[in-house]
Amino acid sequence: MPASFACGAHRIFIYARGGVTPITELAPVSSVRWERIRDEISTAACSIPASACCEELGNLRTILHELHIERNGDVVWQGPITRIEYEHDQVQIYAEDILWVPKRMVLEQGYSQAYPNMYSVVSRMEWLMRDQCYARFGDPWNMVPHVRALHYANEPKSSRITNSYQYTVWEDFDLYAEDSGADYTVVNRDLFMFDTHLAWNIIPELDENFISQFPRVVEYGNEVATRGFVTNGLGQAGIATQPDMGYGVIDHLITRQQDGNPDGPTGEEIAEWSRSAAHAIDGRVPAPVGVVIPANSTLLPGAPWTIDMLIPGSWFQINIESLCRNVTAWQRLHHIQVTEEAPSGETVQFTAVSPPMSMVVP
Q: Taking a C-beta distance cutoff of 8 angstroms, is the pair 232, 307 a contact?
């Protein structure tokens, strides 16, 4: 019988930096909240009665200690403690996931991916995290084995140029997600990075009856594009077209100000821009039709998902049969938030977004 979603209970553990050496368990727990999110740094928080384990709570230290959260015996979230608030009757602990580390590390080594040094976007993101952050000072955070770049053949390349001291490592890493069609997410201690078109994790189809708010079907005219342009804003561009199917000329422009050789892009760079432009407009004709699931919908018991499946960036299908326009459409998980409070118990909320119009199945 397929697994299905069921409510859970949480336990809170404290570990030394690096997530290997356990310090203590904090109990009882008044409330706990944790999340996973695509293209952002996730957070977690918990509240412990001050009378429960006062000495252990007084020994907590930010950054030197990590918060680890278990749900039904499985680890679901890890990250450094970033704030501790001591109150008369409770202690509140706040943490961020392991991307807090590159957020606080300056990128001291500049680089140029101008031709002939063009790399795939995901490869460069992997290099930033592994070589320019976690491994740089001996991997005290125990992260090098957990940097997981997911590749496929002929994935897009970038000719980005970044100067020394221009960004933190995370800022430069995040710009690839913002400008170059890549995604990233953290699950426990694993950092995944992947092209937005790569359906690397497909989870079971979700029936509309297993979510707390009813979805709607939307046709997106503003997503239509018959021509794509990628430029660095200096007078050159890579161009791609697709059949207009009666829509005429409708353009989609992507400006990457950091891309290209300062002396002017080479023919190879412009060809790569053209590939990126084609990648960006693929599937935009005819007008895409998608499903909008209201943000922060609650996942109901019996849904065909388990917590380990809920990875931001995962693809799933949803089938809508009770509206004037019935569709089966792909969605991607963007954000999940899990909260447990006494006496109400656990709530699992999720937000999904429409995926790119084209899909690469590994």
A: no
Q: How far apart are CA 330 and CA 96, in angstroms?
A: 30
Contacts of 6 (CB under 8 A, 6+ apart): 301
Tell me the CATH number at 169: 3.55.50.10
Domain that holds residue 257: 221-281
The number of helix segments (H) and strand segments (E) in the chain equals 5, 24
Range 201-232 burial, b when 16+ CB lie within 10 A, else e: bebeebeeebbeeebeeeeeeebbbbbbbbbb
Q: What is the dihedral of CA 148, 41, 183, 311, to 10 degrees?
A: 70
How do strand 227-231 and strand 251-255 relate by DSSP bridges?
Answer: parallel
Last residue of a domain, one of 252, 281, 310: 281
Give the whole-angstrom CA distance, residue 51 versus residue 56.
Answer: 11
Pairing of strands 345-353, 297-298: antiparallel
In the chain, which residues have pLDDT < 70? 1-3
Give Dmax over CA atoms of the chain in angstroms: 72
According to DSSP, residue 62 is labeled T
Same domain, 81 and 115: no
Both 7 and 90 in a single domain? yes
Give the DSSP H/E element, type plus range, for residue 138. none
pTM (2 decimals)? 0.85
Same domain for 294 and 206?
A: yes
User: Hunting for tokens 């084209």 — which residue is that?
Assistant: 358
| R_g (Cα) of the chain, nearest Å | 23
Residue 117 buriedness (CB in 10 A; 0-12 / 13-18 / 19+): exposed
Model confidence over 312-325: pLDDT tens digits?
999 999 988 888 88
